[in-house]
Automatic annotation (TrEMBL):
Record keywords: DNA-binding, Transcription, Transcription regulation
Database matches in SUPFAM superfamilies: Homeodomain-like (SSF46689)
InterPro entries in the record: AraC_XylS_family_regulators, Homeodomain-like_sf, HTH_AraC, HTH_AraC-typ_CS
Protein name from the UniProt record: Helix-turn-helix transcriptional regulator
Residue span(s) of domain HTH araC/xylS-type: 194-291
Taxonomic source organism: Paracoccus mangrovi
Pfam families assigned: HTH_18 (PF12833)
Source taxon at top rank: Bacteria
Native organism taxonomy: Bacteria, Pseudomonadati, Pseudomonadota, Alphaproteobacteria, Rhodobacterales
Length: 301
């Protein structure tokens, strides 16, 4: 059984004697992707924090999963192998030959938010199984695109690849059914979540107050906070910030002036937009726009 999460897998690798990060891309809200090279190691991830999607870019035949969870025979990797390591799931690995791999790190609350938004389901229904090794041809292209984005420092390409991988994993892990006799206690109904989401989208250009969201759900502010987080994976504030940033991305790519974008997305100023955007994406609005420029130029060349 999974344990309470301790530290992220990236921290275990950073402490490994021969592991080396070849490149990293900050994807915002605690999400990140790193290309690693490792060799000659025995490493144990003890109830790690956050979910990790792993893909072997080069080599892998000298890497084996050896903990009791995989049965009597150790499982050996290969170039192109995919692993899913859910939060809290311990694992143990023997590494002999040098190999390169990519890790996509997704905090639990962010993956649950993506699940709730994408599938209109309660975030508590998300259940991910430990997957030591799998052949996943549909994931190869977005993983390779993510690797390219890391090497190029391309936040837009990294975000696009991350979204594709997240949706594929969430769709493949279903159907999501609660155990027989188990009911979700508390939380918000899908109808109330949609009501709050629609209200949020319609008022992104101004202040959105917790008391107004609570009134929509006919709850106190305290109970709205708790119920919303249970059903969506994140706090109302984080949910609203995601929606503001998503609108800002669309307007940035449409070429709108940053001052106007700040107003349209409910930020007090352009500097407020810049701070919030960097938190959400790892880059400034200007850097995000610059990442789009080569794609636009290539379209007309």
């Amino acid at each position: 059984m999974p344990h309470s999460p301790s530290q992220p897998i990236s921290a275990y690798l950073a402490a490994a004697p021969h592991a080396r990060a070849l490149g990293r891309l900050d994807l915002g809200f605690g999400r990140a992707a790193t290309i690693w090279r490792n060799r000659d190691a025995h490493i144990r991830y003890d109830a790690p924090q956050g979910h990790v999607l792993s893909f072997y870019l080069r080599g892998g035949g000298g890497t084996r999963r050896v903990d009791p969870g995989v049965g009597r025979q150790p499982m050996r990797g290969w170039q192109g192998a995919f692993c899913l390591m859910p939060q809290g799931q311990s694992s143990e690995w023997d590494i002999t030959d040098s190999f390169d791999f990519i890790h996509l790190y997704l905090p639990d609350e962010e993956l649950r938010r993506a699940f709730a938004e994408t599938f209109d389901r309660d975030a508590r229904q998300l259940q991910l199984a430990d997957l030591p090794y799998a052949s996943a041809p549909r994931l190869s292209a977005p993983f390779l695109a993510l690797a390219g984005a890391i090497r190029d420092g391309d936040p837009l390409g990294g975000e696009t690849a991350m979204q594709a991988l997240t949706v594929e994993i969430l769709a493949a892990a279903g159907p999501y059914r609660l155990p027989v006799g188990h009911k979700l206690a508390g939380g918000l109904s899908p109808q109330k979540l949609r009501l709050i989401a629609d209200y949020t989208e319609a008022h992104l250009d101004g202040p959105i107050r917790l008391r107004d969201l609570a009134a929509l759900a006919d709850l106190s502010e305290f109970h709205l906070q708790r119920s919303f987080r249970a059903s969506s994976g994140v706090s109302p504030h984080r949910w609203v910030l995601h929606r503001r940033i998503n609108r800002a991305k669309r307007l940035i790519l449409a070429g709108e002036p940053l001052a106007q974008i700040a107003t349209a997305c409910g930020f007090d100023s352009q500097s407020h937009l810049t701070r919030g955007f960097r938190t959400a994406t790892g880059v400034t609005p200007g850097q995000y726009r610059a990442a789009q420029a080569p794609l636009t130029q290539g379209t007309f060349s």
